[in-house]
Design goal:
73 residues, five-stranded antiparallel beta sheet, 64% strand, globular
């Protein structure tokens, strides 16, 4: 996914346990296309109509830092 990817759906926060560690997972459900999960998301900015999260995504065999900017509609 690139920096200009846009999608519409419902944000859902869930948790997964791996190696006895509980990790938050942010998902975009009911989306118009398939989106990767954002693991260990941190809310870094909040305004009246926008949320910004930073976390990590799995891309192939690598983990990458990713930012999600979510606008409320």
């Amino acid at each position: 996914m690139g920096p200009k990817d846009v999608g519409t759906g419902d944000l859902h926060l869930t948790y997964r346990t791996s190696r006895n560690r509980r990790v938050g997972v942010l998902q975009l459900l009911s989306a118009d296309k398939l989106w990767p999960n954002l693991y260990d998301p941190k809310l870094v900015d909040l305004s009246a109509d926008r949320l910004r999260f930073v976390g990590i995504e799995r891309v192939g065999n690598a983990w990458v830092v990713q930012e999600w900017i979510c606008e409320l509609v």
